Amino acid sequence: MLKSKKKLIALSMAAMTLMLAGVAGYAQRHFMLANAARPEVNVQLSGAVERDAKFLPLEKSTVVNPGEILDWTITAENKGNAAALEYKTVGHIPRGTEFVAGTAKSDGAKALYSIDGGKTFSAQPMIEVKQEDGSVKRVPAPVSMYTEIRYEWSDPLAQGGKLSASYKVRVK
């Protein structure tokens, strides 16, 4: 009986040691994951109205008039402790405005456009137009149909790095 108690105690001690080692390993993995390197990108959108050859910052109370140009700027800064891979940002083209062709600018990103509320993006969105003979022809969508613009950077947004992109819209 004494021999089996010693075995039981030895097995219990071994099990407790393995359990403690497992808990310690889990805690270490959890700590490492919680403190893992990760990006933290802060994004700001600012707007200005082009008036009298000047750019006036848009405020909540700023009234814009038909025909005026709004200049939107998206600024992104990585305040995390790792690079942001395959970084993308999307700018909305507000209702009542129309994208101004050729105004998409960025720090090395390619610009893609959406005509379906951001579901799909393309460098040149296409639409189908019915011809007089009944056939359908795919043609470039007019910029008046653009709803979003997405900027995609091929290089990672480095820790501490900043990027910017801009585009213009005309008030209808």
Describe it.
This protein is α+β, with helices and mostly antiparallel strands and 172 residues long. The protein folds into 2 domains: 1-36; 41-171, Sandwich (Immunoglobulin-like). The chain contains 1 helix and 11 strands. The chain has one helix at 2-34, and strands at residues 41-51, 54-57, 69-78, 88-92, 97-99, 105-106, 109-114, 126-130, 136-140, 148-153, 162-171. Strands 1, 2, 3, 5, 6 and 11 form a 6-stranded antiparallel β-sheet that branches. A hairpin with a 5-residue loop joins strand 8 and strand 9 (136-140).
Set out the fold topology.
Elements: H1 2-34, E1 41-51, E2 54-57, E3 69-78, E4 88-92, E5 97-99, E6 105-106, E7 109-114, E8 126-130, E9 136-140, E10 148-153, E11 162-171
Antiparallel strand pairs: 1-2, 1-3, 3-11, 4-10, 5-11, 6-11, 7-10, 8-9
Tally of DSSP β-strands: 11
User: In the CATH hierarchy, what is the architecture of the largest domain at level 2?
Assistant: Sandwich
Top CATH class of the largest domain: Mainly Beta
Q: How far apart are the first and last residues' alpha carbons, in Å?
A: 94 Å
Radius of gyration from CA coordinates: 28 Å
Percent strand equals: 35-45%
Describe the main β-sheet briefly.
6 strands, antiparallel
- Per the CATH scheme, the topology name of the largest domain is Immunoglobulin-like
Q: What is the ordering of alpha helices and beta strands?
A: HEEEEEEEEEEE
Query: Could you report the average pLDDT, rounded to the nearest whole number?
Result: 84
Domain tally: 2
